[in-house]
Amino acid sequence: MNLKRIMASASALCFAAGMGSAQAAGEFDGVTVNLITQTGAIQEPLQRRAPEFEALTGAKINVIAVPFSDLYQKVLTDWASGTNSVDAAVFAPQWMVDYIAGGYLEDLTARVDGDPAIEQDDVGAFFRDFSEKYNGKVYMKTFDGDFHMMYYRKDLLEEAGLEVPKTWDEYLEVAKALHGKDMNGDGTPDFGSCIGKKRNAQSYWFVTDVVGSLTQSKGTSQGTFFNTEDMTPLVDNAAFRKALSFLKDSTAYGPPDELNLDVSDTRPLFASGRCALNLDWGDVGTISIDPENSKVIGKWGAAIMPGSKEVLDWETGELVACDADTCPYAIDGVNHAPFAAFGGWGGGINAAADDKVKDAAFAFFSYVTQPAQSNQDVTVGITGFNPYRMSQLTFSDLWKNAGMSEAEAENYLGAINASMSSPNMILDLRIPQNQRYQQVVLDEAISRYLAGEIDADATVAAVANGWEELTEEIGRDEQLEIYKATIGAE
Questions:
Q1: Which entry of 64, 158, 200, 235 is 20 to 30 Å from 439 by CA?
Q2: Which run of H or of E encompasses 151?
Q3: Residue 422: CB partners within 8 Å, gap ≥ 6?
Q4: CA-to-CA distance for 281 and 343, rounded, in angstroms?
Q5: Pairing of strands 339-340, 346-349
Q6: 124 and 258 Cβ atoms separated by less than 8 Å
Q7: 453-473: b (≥16 Cβ within 10 Å) or e
Q8: Quick one: residue 348, left, alpha or beta (phi over 0 = left, psi -120 to 50 = alpha)?
Q9: How far apart are CA 451 and CA 253, in angstroms?
Q10: DSSP state of 350
């Protein structure tokens, strides 16, 4: 189902959807909720659903959109300064720790427990028990499910006699073999690989996909960012350096301006048939079935992120071969570490907001996430919402009506399910000021490396030293305790 069909049926859905007993016609007349999120995807469904919700309840939802690079700080500054012009926000779950520490986020536990309309038991356990909670309390409501996956042109691989890449080395081999071919019949050479690598965007997550599959091989609780003995960054080693090499090597097979491309740029490139391989979140799958914009319908596939046949020896800092001891969760000798990058967009409410505003904000969260609305929105690429309910993760009329074939769904939903169920899943960093560790220090260093401003050694030093400085500033013992608790380390 494309966006036009959703909009055409919106009026009927407004009055057919179960709103829950707490929301009655006119209950929130005169109430305005100022809700902030990122520009573009995520903004779109919130803005589109707002008038429906207003018609049902009287509440006006004022959606404020800012670039992703500004979102964390905009929310923190508004709430920490006491300005409180923002009543609610839809943001990354990993940021909640900083908002909770300041006392800025409302505890939503009782509201979620008391709202049967959201069908919370249907929400995937990872999102329900990790992305929404901190210290056992619910502070966010999940709108979206996020895992990084690999996308590929099934038709091109078959024509070239190539297998779907299972390792990062194989990824580069396939990208090199297909780079420069005309992949969509327009007479223009196309690209072996498309990965968003723009600075101050959402590119810094991708290095962790590669590092993680080389560093974390003994389960989620092993972790991939820091040594759980002393909080030393897992950066000055052969695994991190190989990840840097992968990012640089893949750039040679990407669009000439790849370093300036965000995921919002690479997604339409893949759907228009210009990329043989692509790394991204679940959005690419739903964009690829859009009959109005996709030239790859029936030609694409998705898979769990590539892995490695070598993993890091934490003692020596060198890579060693996978075997039953070093890689107990390996599949056909390959260590996969699927990354729950971002953890799924979720909504949180300002604890300082007026009680009636809080009620309206949560009622809107409930409305958007209820199956009647959510089931439609997760099938449309422009929304930025990916499947997160268990009922959304099997092939059904939901996906058939959206235009996804059973074969496409088997690949797409299969990759998500394989990622969610992996015992070696990488959890996103959720320690105080994680945004400074990743979005500031890591992003700047990786961007400068890819731009040729610094070499690999200088990049390693920039990340390792930057993370060490932050850890010392914030408190090593406290950060280590929180990091270990987050990943479930002993």
A1: 64
A2: strand 149-153
A3: 304, 329, 336, 337, 338
A4: 11
A5: unpaired
A6: no
A7: ebeeeebbebbbebbeebbee
A8: beta
A9: 15
A10: B
Q: pLDDT tens digits for the chain (490 residues)?
A: 455 545 444 433 443 344 443 457 889 999 999 999 999 999 999 999 999 999 999 999 999 999 999 999 999 999 999 999 999 999 999 999 999 999 999 999 999 999 999 999 999 999 999 999 999 999 999 999 999 999 999 999 999 999 999 999 999 999 999 999 999 999 999 999 999 999 999 999 999 999 999 999 999 999 999 999 999 999 999 999 999 999 999 999 999 999 999 999 999 999 999 999 999 999 999 999 999 999 999 999 999 999 999 999 999 999 999 999 999 999 999 999 999 999 899 999 999 999 999 999 999 999 999 999 999 999 999 999 999 999 999 999 999 999 999 999 999 999 999 999 999 999 999 999 999 999 999 999 999 999 999 999 999 999 999 999 999 999 999 999 999 999 999 7
Note the pTM of the prediction, 2 decimals.
Answer: 0.94
DSSP, collapsed to helix, strand or coil, labels residue 351 as coil
- What letter represents residue 456's amino acid? A
Cα 442 to Cα 433: distance, rounded to the nearest angstrom: 13
